[in-house]
């Protein structure tokens, strides 16, 4: 499968997971991206393998965007927006309702939630150590941070974000 079709499959898969959880059907996905089920199952022996691929790619996207932001002392606005977008995707695809009650999903859920916790920690560390305020429109930035607060329990990171929101709202 070529890179364009793979990217299309990934984007549609993210859309399906966000909207339907892991209970989306392979038939629907194949119709939307115009491939046969035979082609799909050549690439992914099972739906569980496909679900894991979706999460692996989301985590890779986040890692790539975080690396881009960390490698330069002057992050540009696009790099920061890409990081926030990939973080919001992680939040969206790891909400509790995403993991439907099928046995294959417990393994995927464990994998996704374990990695989400790691990525959240990396994201918060980035926020603590960077000076990104000047690049972000306040509304987008606050929306992302508030979405983050809805996803995590009361921790040091939550307290940090609440202080950060107060600071940004004061600008």
Question: How would you describe this structure in keywords?
Answer:
171 residues; mainly alpha
Description:
It is a single chain. The protein has a single domain (3-169), classed as Tetracycline Repressor, domain 2 (Orthogonal Bundle). It contains eight helices and no strands. It has helices at residues 3-20, 26-33, 37-43, 47-71, 77-93, 103-129, 138-151, 156-169. It is globular. The model is unreliable at 152-156 (pLDDT under 50). Helices cover 76% and strands 0% of the residues. It has 171 residues and is mainly α. The longest helix has 27 residues, at 103-129.
Rg over C-alpha atoms, rounded to the nearest angstrom: 17 Å
Which blocks of ≥5 consecutive residues have pLDDT under 50?
Answer: 152-156
CATH architecture heading: Orthogonal Bundle
Work out the oligomeric state of the chains in this entry.
single chain
Outline type:
globular
- CATH fold-level assignment: Tetracycline Repressor, domain 2
Strand content: under 5%
Question: Portion of residues in helices?
Answer: over 70%
* Whole-number mean pLDDT: 76
Series of secondary-structure elements, N-terminal to C-terminal: HHHHHHHH
The domain tally reads 1
Number of helices: 8
Describe the biggest sheet?
A: none
Terminal residue distance: 48 Å
Instruction: Write down the CATH class.
Output: Mainly Alpha
Structure classification: mainly alpha
The beta-strand count equals 0
């Amino acid at each position: 499968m070529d890179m364009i079709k793979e990217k299309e499959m990934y984007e549609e898969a993210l859309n399906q997971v966000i909207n339907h959880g892991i209970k989306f059907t392979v038939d629907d996905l194949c119709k939307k991206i115009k491939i046969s089920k035979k082609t799909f199952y050549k690439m992914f022996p099972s739906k569980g393998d496909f679900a894991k691929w979706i999460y692996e790619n989301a985590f890779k996207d986040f890692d790539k965007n975080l690396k881009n932001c960390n490698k330069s002392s002057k992050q540009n606005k696009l790099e920061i927006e890409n990081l926030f977008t990939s973080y919001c995707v992680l939040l969206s695809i790891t909400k509790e309702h995403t993991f439907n009650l099928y046995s294959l999903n417990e393994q995927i859920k464990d994998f996704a939630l374990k990695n989400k916790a790691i990525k959240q920690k990396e994201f918060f560390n980035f926020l603590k150590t960077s000076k990104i305020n000047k690049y972000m429109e306040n509304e987008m930035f606050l929306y992302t941070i508030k979405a983050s607060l809805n996803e995590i329990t009361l921790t040091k990171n939550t307290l940090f974000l609440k202080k950060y929101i107060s600071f940004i709202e004061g600008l």
